[in-house]
Design brief:
Layout: H1 2-14, H2 19-56
């Protein structure tokens, strides 16, 4: 029984079919994290630009 378990564990250790799936998962998670950080930073800059543009417009009431 012990020899069978050692053989199965050895076989599982050499099996690399699931490795690429894990690598793709890590790459996607990293891309999402970086994209979120970039968009968060960009939203702050856009808000500042819109506030500055609004301050430059003349006040007109209908």
């Amino acid at each position: 029984m012990t020899a069978y378990l050692k053989m199965m564990l050895s076989k599982l250790r050499r099996d690399e079919r699931g490795v690429t799936l894990v690598e793709y998962g890590i790459a996607i998670a990293l891309a999402v994290a970086l994209g979120t950080a970039a968009l968060t930073d960009l939203s702050g800059e856009i808000e500042d630009g819109m506030v500055a543009a609004g301050a430059e417009m003349p006040n007109s009431t209908p």
